[in-house]
Write a structure and sequence with these properties.
The structure holds three protein chains of three kinds. By secondary structure, chain A is an alpha/beta fold. Chain A has 14 helices and eleven strands. In chain A, 42% of the residues lie in helices and 16% in strands. The two termini of chain A are 35 Å apart. The relative contact order of chain B is 0.19. Chain B has a domain at 20-221. By secondary structure, chain C is mainly alpha-helical. Chain C has one domain (2-236). Chain C contains 16 helices and two strands. Chain C has helices at residues 2-15, 17-20, 23-48, 56-74, 78-100, 105-123, 129-132, 153-177, 179-189, 191-196, 201-227, 237-250, 257-275, 280-294, 299-309, 311-316, and strands spanning 138-139, 229-230. Chain C has a two-stranded antiparallel sheet. In chain C, helix 3 packs antiparallel against helix 11, helix 5 (78-100) runs antiparallel to helix 11 (201-227) and helix 9 packs across helix 11. The two termini of chain C are 16 Å apart. The chains are: A alpha/beta, B mainly alpha, C mainly alpha.
């Protein structure tokens, strides 16, 4: 409520465009005195259409901002396009947004291969490619790609957190790794290698992959158990993670189980697999899980729930895509506010790289967003948490990778 | 040695999944002489209907049979509305319709039921895992259901006049029509039965792999392979083929080529088998007409 | 006579965008040409020869990777990678075509479909990581216009792709019109009779498969140059399905069909996206089925009907 009145006040003072704003509006692409044009690409169709929820969440968020009067008197013109998760289509849509629609910048395009396909183009055109929706390590490469920035903690960072934990608490662990054979899963392998260092070859005794096209991972679970490992790291998307949790319990294996945060959703993974089977699993989180009872009365999550109720009443609140959308949109909102009236691409990029201790309602307490000219990883901190049968209980300090 | 045994068990368990879908594929091929690309998606959609009913408080078995009937009706409608008008069109037009249906069912399921993973209940109870956890009660129960369906299908086509008429209508519509077989009705019935068996397979698979709109994507290829390996015209062959594919996949992935290449290896084995026995292990070689 | 005039007119029409289209539109058109060539390859083996392939994405992938690896690791210029990609894909197609001789209809469809699922896994196999870039793929440079031509890089890539595409279309059009083409069709329609007439079925089927793979491989190569990026998971089963949809929409055994098919698979998803963000796939499916009802023989059948009504054709028949 307080923010809202502040916004309207800000909007009111800026409603009369001064000479200064007009001058800036003329030089900044995709920005007029009344509008900021933002481009977005996500898979609404094709094999990854589950992520379409993120795009629909974004649309609702910017509509809400517009209903509240916009930012500095400017309404957001949010153009979101489908790429079906196919990189050639991503290139086509990015070029459309940049060259035909002339957006100010691209916000949160989804997918590692998809962002890889347009990264060079975006940087040669000097158009910001902000807060990409992928957890690959490479989105923080400010030296080679000063126009590209990630958002969520990288998968490698997460794997290193597990490695550190293992080295400290279970130095004689015999580790087994299950990874999805794609860019996402391979990053966990890479992260463990970095995190365990010289110990990697000794400690990791079995590595098994699976394909997203596989029907089940039962065979892999059996192989990993038979290896004699006592520690398991699972880097799998929700469906396979749920299968793994169930199978590991069913074959009577009780390893110390680390599970990627991508698949830590209570509603979409733990409950389907059986909450009793997951007891003892450790994950690391940076955002609050909407289906975890821990946050049933949380102030930030209540704000999010109220937002969902008001703006997306028919949507599935168990879908973590909406929480993700809310968090990343909030970050973007802060950047645009910080830009003031200088909405040139240079300044948007500059402000994106000048976020200081930004707290987002949907992120864990203590997880703050920080960027600088030499830090293009907005979220670097996570907290370990353990499944106690009913909720994820956080333990330990905020760990920064 | 223990490990090998475990892999075989786990392979038989996944093989059961492939077998149930393979059976549905055989059914539609026998009854319509088409391979419906959308078969898996239609089964997935039916499974969502079952889940909706169960969540509304309908007892499992009532929901089960209601879903089978729903799936059969959908099958008949698809045949009557989409396939029949294209009966005299080039076969590619039907293929186009199949692919279109695949997109429609997949996308609509995601839209209505969301993409969030959902657990699907098993009628055989959660219970404790059996035989050291390598078979769940559900895996045993669903294998039994597959066998019951298999027996019924076989008996239906083998011993009933209706079954014979359906096979005839699919195999040679023109001659059948001349012999007084109502071809259009038979084809519609075939679509209905195939769709119903698909729904059963979907409800048996969902408790194992979890229900989401892409549930069938991973299963279908292996099921298809199982059906062809056993012989697309032979229900028993398809079921056996499904189990064989499950075991080969597991053993190959665990011991021979590694998990990254197990699909390629399964592919090579199937090609070799089919090159030696073109109609599948148990298929009848059909003599071609000149 | 008018036939040549129409073809020349079409080529003139295809070159026209160079004058006015934006870079983004040229990129779209480049993709259309690329897909048209890929579908042309599929049409040769499936439309003319009756061997159903659900795995042509695999040949596209091999072509694309050949170009990307040669450009990235061996600094070979993009144009020189094309013949290499063509040869590699032809050999690959020949090898796949060998067992295909014995696998009819459904069996071949399954085998090729499995191939399309298996290829991404092979591309990211750890032994080839150094060359393929593993799961991350390869980013390549965009070619500039040579000889100091006053074209920007988008215009040049379009022109280059178009020129290669036209060569492919002319080659295949001549191939199917001649003796070999008639033999292909004979094998599709009446295999026993064809054999009785002395056609070496085994030889010709394998040969067709190889040529088809080569054409689709060239398309993959062109696609890599245009998109400047290859990654294994971009070449899975959905790509093969896209080509197959394009083939069905265009119409079997037709030279102009693939062009319509390519236009469909390139632009209809964009339209579906505009109609519904909730279920664009369903919109796409409905449009596809609607088209099958309007033109069960594909777009090519409509073109044939229209052509038959043209005055010069009516006179001769």
């Amino acid at each position: 409520m307080k923010r809202r009145s502040l916004l309207t006040a800000a909007a009111a003072t800026l409603a009369t465009p001064s000479l200064l704003t007009r001058a800036h509006a003329a030089t900044a692409v995709g920005v007029t005195a009344t509008e900021i044009k933002i481009g977005h690409i996500v898979a609404y169709s094709g094999p990854a259409s589950a992520y379409g929820a993120i795009g629909r969440g974004h649309v609702a968020f910017w509509k809400m901002i517009n209903d509240q009067g916009g930012i500095n008197g400017r309404k957001i013109n949010f153009i979101t396009l489908d790429d079906g998760y196919a990189p050639p289509k991503t290139v086509e849509q990015a070029r459309r947004l940049v060259e035909q629609d002339e957006v100010a910048f691209l916000f949160n395009p989804l997918g590692t291969p998809n962002n890889s396909a347009i990264q060079k183009y975006m940087n040669s055109k000097k158009v910001p490619q902000l807060f990409v929706a992928t957890g690959a390590e490479k989105w923080g490469d400010y030296q080679h790609f000063p126009w590209t920035m990630g958002w969520q903690p990288s998968y490698q960072t997460e794997a290193q957190i597990y490695a550190k934990y293992i080295l400290k608490n279970k130095p004689d662990a015999k580790i087994a790794l299950l990874y999805q054979n794609d860019d996402f899963g391979k990053d966990y392998l890479a992260g463990l290698k970095v995190g365990l260092g010289a110990q990697f070859d000794k400690m990791v005794i079995k590595i098994v992959s699976f394909e997203v096209t596989d029907a089940t991972i039962d065979s892999q679970a059996v192989t990993l158990k038979d290896s004699g490992a006592d520690t398991l790291v699972t880097a799998a998307t929700p469906k396979f993670a749920a299968q793994m949790i169930r199978k590991v319990a069913d074959i009577g294996w009780k390893p110390l189980h680390f599970l990627t945060h991508v698949s830590a959703s209570v509603g979409a993974v733990i409950n389907p697999a059986g909450p009793e089977r997951a007891v003892g699993i450790i994950t690391s989180q940076y955002a609050k899980d909407p289906t975890d009872p821990t946050w049933a009365d949380d102030k930030g999550m209540n704000e999010w729930r109220a937002y969902m109720k008001a703006h997306m009443p028919d949507s599935d609140v168990a879908d973590s895509g909406y929480v993700f959308s809310y968090g990343v949109c909030h970050t973007m909102l802060q950047v645009l506010k910080q830009c003031g009236n200088d909405l040139s691409r240079e300044n948007i990029m500059h402000q994106a790289a000048s976020l200081k201790d930004l707290a987002i309602p949907t992120l864990l307490p203590g997880v703050l967003i920080n960027t600088s000219a030499t830090n293009f990883h907005p979220i670097r901190s996570m907290k370990l948490s353990k499944w106690d049968g009913k909720t994820w209980s956080l333990f330990g300090d905020v760990i920064t990778g | 040695m223990d490990g090998v045994l475990h892999q075989v068990f786990s392979g038989i368990a996944s093989g059961g999944i492939y077998a149930s879908i393979a059976l549905a594929l055989v059914m539609i091929f026998t009854a319509t002489h088409h391979v419906n690309f959308a078969q898996g998606e239609m089964a997935m959609f039916s499974t969502y209907i079952a889940l909706t009913l169960i969540q509304a408080g309908v007892p499992y078995w009532i929901a089960f049979f209601a879903t089978v009937i729903f799936a059969m009706v959908v099958g008949v409608i698809v045949q009557k509305v989409l396939m029949e008008p294209l009966m005299n069109a080039p076969v590619l037009a039907s293929v186009g319709v199949f692919i279109g249906l695949l997109f429609i069912f997949n996308s609509t399921a995601g839209w209505i039921f969301t993409y969030t993973l959902k657990p699907f209940p098993s009628p055989f109870g959660e219970g404790g895992p059996l035989f050291g956890g390598f078979f769940s009660r559900h895996e045993l129960g669903s294998t039994a259901i597959t066998l019951v369906v298999l027996l019924s299908v076989w008996a239906f086509f083998r011993f009933t006049r209706l079954g014979l008429a359906m096979r005839a209508a699919a195999y040679n519509p023109t001659s059948s029509r001349l012999s007084g077989v109502p071809v259009a009705t038979m084809l519609a019935l075939g679509w209905g039965l195939a769709s119903g068996i698909g729904a059963i397979a979907g409800m048996m698979v969902a408790p194992i792999v979890f229900l989401d709109p892409n549930m069938m994507a991973g299963v279908l290829l292996y099921a298809f392979a199982g059906a062809l390996l056993g012989g697309i015209t032979n229900p028993l062959g398809a079921v056996v083929g499904g189990f064989i594919v499950g075991v080969i996949e597991n053993l190959g992935g665990a011991y021979v080529v590694g998990t990254e290449l197990k699909l390629s290896m399964a592919l090579i084995i199937i090609v070799v088998v089919l090159t030696l026995k073109p109609a599948g292990l148990f298929g009848k070689v059909l003599s071609s007409r000149v | 006579m008018p036939r040549i005039a129409i073809i020349l007119g079409c080529i003139a029409l295809a070159v026209l965008p160079l004058l006015g289209a934006s870079g983004y539109q040229l990129f779209q058109l480049t993709l259309v040409v690329t897909y048209a060539v890929a579908i042309l390859g599929l049409n040769l083996v499936t439309g003319y020869n009756g061997q159903v392939s659900l795995g042509h994405g695999a040949f596209y992938a091999v072509g694309a990777y050949t170009t990307a690896i040669l450009m990235d690791k061996f600094a070979v210029p993009y144009w020189a990678t094309l013949p290499v990609a063509a040869v590699i894909c032809a050999v690959f197609g020949f090898l796949i075509g060998l067992p295909a001789l014995r696998l009819g209809g459904l069996y071949l469809a399954l085998t090729t479909f499995a191939l399309s699922v298996a290829v991404p896994q092979l591309l990211k196999y750890k032994l080839f990581d150094d060359y393929t870039g593993g799961v991350q793929g390869i980013v390549i440079d965009k070619p500039d216009a040579p000889f100091g031509l006053a074209l920007n890089s988008d215009q040049w890539v379009y022109l280059f792709t178009l020129a290669v595409g036209i060569v492919c279309f002319v080659l295949i059009a001549n191939l199917v019109k001649g003796r070999i083409g008639r033999a292909m069709i004979a094998i599709r329609d009446q295999p026993l009779a064809a054999e009785a007439m002395g056609i070496d079925i085994a030889m010709l089927k394998t040969y067709t498969f190889a040529v088809s793979a080569m054409i689709t491989g060239i398309a993959g190569s062109l696609g890599a140059v245009a998109v400047q990026f290859v990654a294994p998971d971009a070449f899975g089963a959905p790509l093969s399905l896209t080509f197959f949809v394009g083939f069905v929409v265009g119409g079997g055994a037709s030279i102009v069909g693939p062009i319509f098919g390519a236009i469909f698979v390139e632009f209809i998803p964009n339209i579906a996206d505009q109609i519904s963000k909730a279920a664009p796939g369903a919109v796409y499916g409905v449009l596809l089925i609607a088209l099958m009802f309007v033109a069960p023989g594909g777009c090519a059948s409509i073109v044939r009907k229209l052509a038959a009504r043209m005055p010069w054709n009516r006179k001769t028949t």
